[in-house]
Amino acid sequence: MSAFLGMPSHRPLVILLYPKVDHEKDYVYFWMPFSLLTLAKPLLDEGLADVVLFDGNQANDAAWSDFLDEHLDRAVCIGVSIMTGGGQIGHALDLVRMAKERPGCPPVVFGGPHVNVLGEQTAAHELVDAVLVGPGQNSMPAFVTALTNNTAWEDVPGLISKRRGELVRGPVNPPRTGIMGQYPWHLLDIERYVRDDPTVAPRTLNYISSQGCVYKCQFCYELTYQRKYSAMAADGLVADIDDLARRFGLNGIKFYDADWFVNLKRAAAFCEGVIEGGLDIRWAASINPNDILKARRAGIPLLKLVAASGGSRLLMGVESGNDRVLRDVVKKEVTRAQILDVARDIAEHGVLGSYTFIVGFPGESDAEVDDTYGLIEELRAFDPTPETRVHLFAPYPGTPLYDDAVRAGFEPPSTLDCWSHFDYYDSQTPWTSDETVRRARAATQMRLRPQEVGT
Fold first, then answer.
1. Where's the Radical SAM core domain (predicted)?
2. Is 435 helix (H, G, I), strand (E, B) or coil?
3. Burial, 282: exposed, middle or buried (Cβ in 10 Å; 0-12, 13-18, 19+)?
4. Got the DSSP string for 241-286?
């Protein structure tokens, strides 16, 4: 789970922990923990510390115990990344408790999407020594420097910590995250993360090339980050993908950027670079319907370039098939008719469309939900037959629709322990019925494995 060869013993050691996520039944893809790779990169690049990484999706609690046996004595801190839902918070607390029971356990600092919104609540937990709010690329090097130099924690950007029963804060952590890429791949056993993805290629690896999103979907956690959009340049991205493919025998890349196509010129340049370089690789990425509409207006043959460069699948959050919900609730800035037009265009270019929806928004009527399922039926008439996934609305703290959900009767968890039971795969709102859950699961049709379609 880590690489520790050739590291000079005089430098401090940082343990980075990515707790297990409890995915849906039959979920077959466990991707690399990029949130921790982005933290490790500045620590290593600046020579501040050595880093080891533990991924709870790849190893069990017994392996964590052995990992602590090997590394805890030298560690200056343990950094933990948590997101809301999926059981990750509960797994994090269990693993941290195991570390805290050992003598000489160093400070444990939490970060990640959940902390960015509920920093004070997280910092109040007995197992948490500090939290870092905002981009960890900015705050983690400062925190490690404070630990190694024995200086004040209050100087660390985004820090919240307990002191004599009171919470103390560091300065504001700026939202800009800096240049991405050139990840420290040696911290992971890459082969463990290679997947046979029927929508991409037999040897597919995930990758994140940008952070931030310019759209304002009211349910989305991206709104809570308040970070500036930043992305790798197209030429550097092509070179990095080419290098990965050669080193690890890859023939597929699955981009997990929030919206890979925010910068249309970068997207087009990447496609052109793949074509001109003769890279034998297939790839998939997320896209907003407005990206395609903007490309048309700009005269960029985006879908033609995607298909010609090996783009095999485009993931698009459609959210709803009702214009009022799209306009007033989600603020998607697109209409049902435009979604159908864009999806038809994707299919006509031979690219698989993968469309996600949400039902159970606050104030959504049964007729509006029916519009969503009607749109799904229309989309599934295209060739190639698109994937469809229907999610249940989950009120994420810090988003505008979270406040609407609370006003509609949702009772949010009040402690970190209570949040550990929040599961976005099941209904979390009092107005979502068992029938709503059943219907959503029945309409979810994904290509899970080669030659297999299921829920």
1. 200-455
2. helix
3. buried
4. HHHHHHHHT--EEEE--S-TTSSHHHHHHHHHHHHHHT---EEEEE
Residue of 144, 132, 203 whose CA lies nearest to 172: 132
The one-letter amino acid code at 56 reads: G
Pairing of strands 230-231, 311-319: unpaired
Contact between residue 63 and residue 25 where contact means Cβ atoms under 8 Å apart: no
Enumerate residues 6+ apart whose C-beta is below 8 A from 365: none
- Domain(s) labelled CATH 3.40.50.2300 in the chain stretch across 13-169
CATH of domain 13-169: 3.40.50.2300
Tell me the helices (H) and strands (E) count for the chain, helix number first: 17, 17
Strand-strand pairing, 130-132 and 210-211: unpaired
Residue 22 banded pLDDT, cuts 50, 70, 90: confident
User: 3-state class of 312 per DSSP?
Assistant: strand
Instruction: Classify residue 186 as exposed, middle or buried by CB count within 10 Å of its CB (0-12, 13-18, 19+).
Output: middle
Burial class of residue 257 (count of CB atoms within 10 Å of its CB; 0-12, 13-18, 19+): buried
* Segment 435-454 mean pLDDT: 72
Top-confidence residue, 301 or 258: 301
The fold for domain 194-454 equals TIM Barrel (3.20.20)
Structure tokens at 421: 């039971």
Task: Report pLDDT for 454.
Answer: 39
Counting every residue written for the chain, the total comes to 455
| Lowest-pLDDT range of 65-74, 216-225, 286-295 | 216-225
